[in-house]
Amino acid sequence: MDLFDKTTSASGITNELHEDSDGNIVQVIKQDAQHILDSNAEIRNSYAKPKDNALGEHHARIPMSIVMKWQVEDGIDIYNPDDLPRVMAKLNEPEYAFLRVNNKKHIIKG
Questions:
Q1: How far is residue 55's CA from residue 37's CA, in Å, rounded to a whole number?
Q2: Rounded CA separation 59/88 (Å)
Q3: Is residue 63 within 8 Å of 57, Cβ to Cβ?
Q4: pLDDT tens digits for 30-50?
Q5: Residue 100 in contact with residue 44, Cβ under 8 Å?
């Protein structure tokens, strides 16, 4: 597998293009998001209930690599308000607990 290109963005995302054994071009996207996950855990462990007059509540910090994974694999656009129920459902999954900054179940009130 030959490496054609490797670029790293300011957000820490590394994009690599390879050729596989069948001659197909394969894109590999990686991100070192440990600092985001560590920060999520720190916030979650020191979580304080928001004041009654708060405009909103911080739910999660999602690394761009996860945003891209959800977009490609599940068709979820976290920036589309219509996809918000699907985003909240993902955040409630035990598999993605590390993205949350609190231990609450995330729901949309209508």
A1: 25
A2: 9
A3: no
A4: 888 888 889 989 988 886 666
A5: yes
User: Reading across the β-sheet that carries 25-31, which strands appear in turn?
Assistant: 2-8, 13-19, 25-31
Q: DSSP state, 60? A: B
> DSSP label at 28?
E
Residue pair 76/83 in contact (Cβ under 8 Å)? The answer is yes
With 0-12 / 13-18 / 19 or more C-beta atoms within 10 angstroms meaning exposed / middle / buried, residue 99 is buried
Burial string for 63-76 (b: 16+ CB within 10 Å, else e) reads bebbbeebeeeeeb
Residue 108: per-residue pLDDT: 72
User: Is the Cα dihedral 99, 65, 69, 18 positive or negative?
Assistant: negative
Give pTM, 2 decimals. Answer: 0.68
4, two tokens? 């054609």
How many whole angstroms separate alpha carbon 110 and alpha carbon 108? Answer: 6
